[in-house]
Amino acid sequence: MRVTVRPITPHDLPEIRAELITHWHDTRIWSLGRCHQADALPGFVAEANGTFAGLITLNMDPGGWQCEVITLSSRATAPGIGATLLSAAETHARTAGCRRIYLTTTNDNSRAIRFYQRQGWRFAALHKGIVDRVRTLVPDLPLLGHDGIQIRDEIEFERWFMNDANLD
Asked: Bridge partners of 122?
């Protein structure tokens, strides 16, 4: 199976919106108490044999010294899609001059937590109760997530770069 990763183009928007709705039930994604319009963010699309296979969206923080991964999703069409997309985001951040790349996932998402650790990302912070606070603004956020676990917190993961060398 041939897998390619390329930057998002306007042509990708229908597929991106469908992917966001499938995985997050919205195109607005909350992270660290901030709302991101994910279908308007830069990022990368993975294709397997010319078919949409995954998505990663990114947000450069003010000052450009760090980059946040807002969404990462892959379809089960080929193994390694998520890792390939995450690697593309790391390369993009490093090339853009970022010293740090980071992301969050919710406390219920044990599959993602294990995945990020396997990719060499490190725990950076636990943001206790942040989803509860966002839920006051967005009451339709689900209370329960994977395996019936109550969604309350975000876990932040990070990778650091210095002079093109990873400081993990």
From this structure: 158
Give how many domains the chain has, as a whole number.
Answer: 1
Q: Sign (positive/negative) of CA torsion 82, 88, 89, 90?
A: positive
Whichever domain contains 7, its CATH number is: 3.40.630.30
Please give the span between the terminal C-alpha atoms of the chain, in angstroms, as a whole number: 32
Q: Is 49 left (phi over 0), alpha (psi -120 to 50) or beta?
A: left
Picking from 75, 5, 11, the residue whose alpha carbon sits closest to that of residue 46 is 5
Domain that holds residue 152: 3-166
Q: What is the pLDDT of residues 67-109, one digit of tens each?
A: 999 999 998 666 789 999 999 999 999 999 999 999 999 999 9
- Residues 31 and 70: beta-carbon distance below 8 Å: yes
pTM for the complete prediction? 0.91
Distance, CA of 117 to CA of 109 (rounded, Å) = 13
Question: Encoding tokens for residue 163?
Answer: 């002079």
Pick from 25, 32, 40: nearest CA to 140 = 25
- CB of 49 closer than 8 Å to CB of 75: no
